[in-house]
Amino acid sequence: MSPFVIQPPNELGDKALVAFFKGWNWQIIPRDEVVLDFNRIDFLAPWAITLFALHALWLHEKQGIQVKILLDPSRQAGRYLVQAGIFELLDLPRPEGIPDLPEARTTRLTRIQHSQDVPTFAKTVMGILEIGDEELEGAVRYSLIELLRNVVQHAGSPVGALSMAQFYPKTGLVDVVVADRGVGILSTLKPKYPEIATDLNAIKFSMLPHVSGTFPPNAYNTMSDNAGLGLFFIKEIASRAGGGFFLGSKMALADVWGTADGSLGKRYQVATRDGWPGTFALLQLRKDSIGEFDSLLGVCRDLAAQARRDPTEIDLDFIDEIPDIPGLTVIRVADFEEDVEAAATVREQIAIPKLVQGEMVVLDFTSIKAATQSFVHACMYKILRDRREARYALSIAGCSNATREAIRAVAAYAKVGLSTEQRQPPTQK
Fold first, then answer.
1. Model-level pTM?
2. 429 inside domain
3. Which stretches does DSSP call E strand in 210-316?
4. Domains held by the chain: number
5. Are residues 164 and 284 in the same domain?
6. 104-140 pLDDT tens trace
7. Does residue 180 lie in a domain region?
């Protein structure tokens, strides 16, 4: 019987991640022998090496399948695979004559199976980053450890996780990736948040501050101040310092990046096939700027503190692109611009029923230059005040800066626990 050959795409850099995630099929399980054929690969980013290496490890250890690696050592991608340690990971003989990369630029594929594996890998990554600021370094290290520890404690991955980090001198970026083949974010959050129904809802929700699969909902005053801040800090630190953050789990992927005005860009994707059979995260940190971003830690702390005082405002999910998802409800706000009665009708008859069912709703403000607070109030005040589902199922797209500020203002007076009369602006009756 001929071996089953897996041949990755020729180019798998960071820009290819979204398309690869949406279209690649990991679910085919061969019977006897697998050949990973990297002979024609021109470039492999750390995330690609990590995912394929973990898949091969799972096939070998848990499915009892013999795995072989084919590569061209004359190509950069072939040498990089060897230097990443994929042969050692799979207990295969390593090709000779290929030197290791300098430790100051890369970490080899590192297996995370036990709690004691976590701080060791985090320390190695911190050595590559060389942040220099003790307090900021502590925050980054904390975030990395939280990310890795989640795998050990909650993922239920039969082979643990794989991690890898790489510094690119030309761009100044450090890529840090961790992947597991566990139960996924949705299954982790479901016991505490049974209303969350989809992988996309779970990813959206998991990046909010003080969201934890361990602590109960709304336990801001009883849990440790840092509980549930791992993914939130990682997302904020990476994007606000000129980097980015990808988080994929099962069928859904979030892509967050920093914009020129200091805000966050964000978009979601849903796989057209089977997604990734677990969870993975790619953290991109800009080495030359993270230590100089003096207000970074303060911003993260302020946002986390605000979430404890007022979870409504921080839960606003502004996105830059409406995801292509079957069954997604997109409400074109421009169709009833500044008509508060029509807005209230759409809110009651379309938006709220969909949210109650756990379906994702996008309020699309495209073409509206500056929505008034009165109009925004009619569109979403009641949703933000009364519907808990908005935290994981409502997104807002196409906003101008002025419209964003109007939405934030409405969210501020929709705080949980205060009456409608106390929160309505003077012009609203």
1. 0.82
2. no
3. 244-250, 252-258, 264-270, 276-286
4. 2
5. yes
6. 788 899 999 888 888 888 888 888 877 776 766 776 7
7. yes
